[in-house]
UniProtKB/TrEMBL annotation:
The keyword Transcription applies. It comes from Kribbella antibiotica. Residues 121-172 form the RNA polymerase sigma factor 70 region 4 type domain. This is Sigma-70 family RNA polymerase sigma factor. Residues 24-90 form the RNA polymerase sigma-70 region domain. Gene3D superfamilies: 1.10.1740.10, Winged helix-like DNA-binding domain superfamily/Winged helix DNA-binding domain. One of its GO terms (biological process) is DNA-templated transcription initiation. The keyword DNA damage does not apply.
C-alpha cells in the first residue's frame, strides 16, 4: 500500500491563519495584478484573489513544495479561477436592458453593478412566466417592436397581445417577488 506524500514544512503553513496571512502578504498583490490584467475588472480580480486563498487554505494538505513553489501553486489556482470567470462571462454576457422595462419594474439606479444584477434577475424571472407572455414582453419591451407588427407575426389580434403584455408584467412582478426582489 503506497504511503501518502509526506507534507513538507514551508515558511507558509496554509492550514494556519498566520500562514495564510503571510502567503497573502507575499503573493496577494501579484495575484491581484495577474487577475486584473486577465479580467480587466477590479471586483472580479479581488474575488479571484480571495477565492485563490480560500481554495489554498482548504487544500493546504495537498500542497507539496517538492513539486512546485507556493507562488506557482497559488498562480495555478488563480489561473483556473480566471478561466472559470472568463467562461462564466462568455456564457452570461452583461447586456443592459432597455430603460422602458427597467422603468416599468422599478427605478433605475446609477450603479452598473446593480443594473447588471437587476438584468440577470429580470432574465431569470422571464424564464418563470408563460412562453406567450414572455415572447410578448421580449418583443414589445425589450426589442421595442410595435404591437401590430408583433401581433401579426404571432398570429393573434393586437388586443390579445396587449393582454399578454399586461398579464406578463404582472406575472413578471410576481416571479420577482417570489425570488425575493424588492422593487
Amino acid at each position: 500500500m503506497p504511503t501518502p506524500p509526506r507534507r513538507l514544512r514551508t515558511e507558509h503553513d496554509l492550514s494556519r491563519d498566520d500562514g495564510v496571512r503571510a502567503a497573502y502578504a507575499e503573493h496577494g498583490a501579484e495575484l491581484y495584478r495577474f487577475a486584473l490584467r486577465q479580467l480587466d475588472d477590479e471586483g472580479a480580480a479581488t474575488d479571484v484573489v480571495q477565492e485563490t486563498f480560500v481554495r489554498a487554505w482548504r487544500a493546504a494538505d495537498r500542497f507539496d513544495p517538492s513539486l512546485a513553489s507556493l507562488r506557482v501553486w497559488l498562480f495555478a489556482i488563480a489561473r483556473n479561477l480566471v478561466v472559470d470567470e472568463s467562461r462564466r462571462r462568455a456564457a452570461r454576457p452583461v447586456t443592459p436592458q432597455p430603460p422602458e422595462l427597467l422603468t416599468e419594474l422599478g427605478p433605475i439606479t446609477e450603479s452598473t453593478d446593480e443594473t447588471a444584477v437587476l438584468s440577470w434577475l429580470v432574465e431569470e424571472a422571464l424564464q418563470r412566466i408563460r412562453p406567450e407572455a414572455r415572447s410578448a414582453l421580449v418583443e414589445t419591451y425589450l426589442r421595442g417592436r410595435p404591437y401590430d407588427e408583433v401581433a401579426a407575426e404571432q398570429g393573434v389580434p393586437v388586443g390579445t397581445l396587449r393582454s399578454r403584455v399586461f398579464y406578463g408584467l404582472k406575472a413578471l412582478r410576481l416571479a420577482m417577488d417570489e425570488m425575493g426582489v424588492e422593487l
